[in-house]
Amino acid sequence: MYSSTGFVVAADSRQQWGDAPTRDEETRAAESNTTQKIFGVKAGQIALAYVVRGDIANRERSFDITAELKRQIEAVGGTRFRSCLKFVRTVTDNLELAIKRIKMSGQLQTYPTSEITFVGYRNADPCWIDVRFHPYANGLLSEVIPRDFYPGLALITGSLVVRDMISNTDPRFAQFISSIKDPDNPSLDEAAGFIKGYITACSSPLALQLDPESCQTIGGPTQLAAVTPNKSSWFEKCFIRRSAKSNTAGFRWIIAPDGFV
C-alpha cells in the first residue's frame, strides 16, 4: 500500500512446491513456513523494497531466483542511476541473461513464471514497478511495467474471495482489518495494519474453508516492511513529520522474517 509518507509491503512466509503431481515427500520436506519474501535495496540515492512471487526455485534448488536477483542487484550497487526505472530495467536485463545462461547449462528444465514488485524512492521521487518473467515460444520474456499509483492504493495477490468479502465489509472478517480514517491519505501505521490484517485473514481457518485453493498456500509469520523517502527540508516539512515512524529514510523492517539477522 502507498501512502503520502511511504510504502508498506507485507508477505506471508510459506513456500511450497507448486507442481502438485510431483509434490512428493522430498519436495514437501524442502517446503517452509519461514521463507523470507521481502528484501530491501540501497543503491546510491535509490531505496526500494521488493517482493518475489510465482516460480522461485527448481526442484533441486540449484536455481533460486531470489538469490540470483540479489546477485544482480549487488553487481550494479555502485552505479548511479537517474531513476528507479533505469535501475530496475538494468537489473531485469541482467537477471534475464543470467536465467537464460542457467537454462542453457541444464539446471532449469523450463523458464520460470515469476513476478517481482519494486516500490520505493529515488530521493523523494516515488516509484512502483512490476517485473514479469514468463516463457514465450522457446525463450524467456521479461516485462518492466511502471504502475500508476496514488495514496491509499493497495495491491493484493492473495485470496480474491477474501478480498471481495473485506471490500463488502463482511462482519466475519471485521476482526482482521484495521480502519483507515482517510482512505485518500492513510498513515504508514494504518497502511501497515490494513495489509497485515489482510494476510492474517487469508491464513485464517475461515478463509481456508471459504477459498481452500488459494488460502492453503498462505501461512507462516507475516513479514512487514516500509520504505520512506530521503528527506529534503521541503519534503520533511510537508510530509515526514506527519508520521512518528517516518523519521528514518529508506528501507526498514516493521516485522522482520523469522531468523532474520
Q: How does this model look, in words?
A:
The strands form two sheets. The chain has a five-stranded antiparallel β-sheet with strand order 3-4-5-6-7, covered by helices on one side. Strands 1-2-8-9 form a four-stranded antiparallel β-sheet, with helices on one face. It has one domain (2-151, 222-255): Glutamine Phosphoribosylpyrophosphate, subunit 1, domain 1 (4-Layer Sandwich). The chain has eight helices and nine strands. With 261 residues, the protein is of the alpha+beta class. It starts with a strand and ends in a 6-residue tail after the last strand. α2 crosses α3 (84-104). The model is unreliable at 233-247 (pLDDT under 50).
CATH architecture: 4-Layer Sandwich
Number of domains: 1
Q: Do you know the CATH topology?
A: Glutamine Phosphoribosylpyrophosphate, subunit 1, domain 1
- Give the helix level as a range of percent: 25-40%
**Main pleated-sheet profile:** 5 strands, antiparallel
Oligomer: single chain
Order of helices and strands: EEHEEHHEEEHHHHEHE
Tally the beta strands. Answer: 9
Shape: globular
Rg for CA atoms: 19 Å
Can I get a quick summary?
The protein is an alpha+beta fold and 261 residues long. The chain has eight helices and nine strands.
